Amino acid sequence: MSNLDPTTMVLVLALGNLALCALLTFFDHGTARPPALGVWALARQVQAGAWTLLALGGASVLPEPLSLPAGFALLFAGVAIEAGAGWEEAGRDGWRRPTLVAGTLAIGVFLACYLVDQGGLRSLAASLLLGALYLNVAAALGAGWAGASLLRRFLAVLTAVLALVVAARGLSVLLLPGGWRWLSSELLRQLSSAALYLLMLANAFGMLLLGRERAGRELARLEVVDPLTNVPNRRGFFAALAPWMALARRPGQPTALVVLDLDGFKRVNDAYGHPAGDAVLRHVVELCRRQLRDSDLLGRLVGVEFAILLPRTRLEEALLVAERIRAAIASSPVKSERAMIAMTASFGVTVIRPEDSTVTLFQRADDALRDAKDGGRNRVSGALPAALEA
Ligand SMILES: Nc1nc2c(ncn2[C@@H]2O[C@H](COP(=O)(O)OP(=O)(O)OP(=O)(O)O)[C@@H](O)[C@H]2O)c(=O)[nH]1
Fold it and tell me: I want to staple 211 with a disulfide (CB 3.0 to 4.6 A). Which of 34, 74, 109, 346 is the partner?
């Protein structure tokens, strides 16, 4: 490490940050762009600018009284923006403002220290403030620790440890100016530079890896959730139905199934356009949700056909629930840009029988739904109980 003089390290940090800025510009994030990507890219650019200024000062291209205060001010701003991006990415937007205020304060404190004493006090302030700002980045990464992935936890711990190494250099200037045993102040300075370098790499690649992790989670979610209405799709609904089918084989409380199909939906799309049709679908889902218990399950089977699973519900009760939803839909038109769109739906209701497969169950519910459609739509029809069949 003895070859790494401060100017070289600063130059390495400047070039590294510039390379990461270029990488970010050309990196294809696909459809799953991290939410804080723009802010985070700004943080990288500001930090790249800061290290470039400091490198130019170190190489005497720029006068130090200009490059040093401006470089450190930019650096504090860049790390504060990076922490802000971390909070935004963690979904804690409320922490962004205090983080930026802390960054501004850090700039003020550093500039004051620089004016008072351009030697030790300046180094002390720079290391302590940078360490504290990076601890904030670590805190943002560690937000929601209990549910966080291993990668996120690793990045949080790594960032915290490296931030402490950076801060330790400031403390050593204050408490042990001559170093301690083998830990000379020069070694601490080099460790601190190495920590800053690792922080740059860990946070840059960490952000990209976290983005990939999030994209994977979103893909897995979309396999079972309908993106338009945010309720389980056919696959998700059938997966949730399986245990209830098994339970129905045992004597006990009945479980009901309602299938719901919106009436004449084609005309909505034709008359008002597809986006208005989508709004109607979301509205109908919201109406259904309001009529259901937490334990009930609503899913979108296909197009404008939905299914509702009602645990511990007999046929007569399920008919009442379906009737409530029917009335709610019929009496609650959707406001679109051009008009109020009135909507109705038809319902088929049945209960799970011990001998049922999903095929026979849905056949019965669909037959009942067909009866409701044939009977004039906007009505509820129940399948015959098993005892009354044939
Ligand atoms: N806006 C929108 N329309 C959809 C969506 N999925 C399916 N549709 C439309 O919904 C309509 C469904 O039509 P059908 O169920 O066959 O018939 P209908 O017009 O509703 O008439 P009945 O069911 O016989 O009362 C089709 O025009 C589809 O294009 C969607 O996600 N958004």
Answer: 34
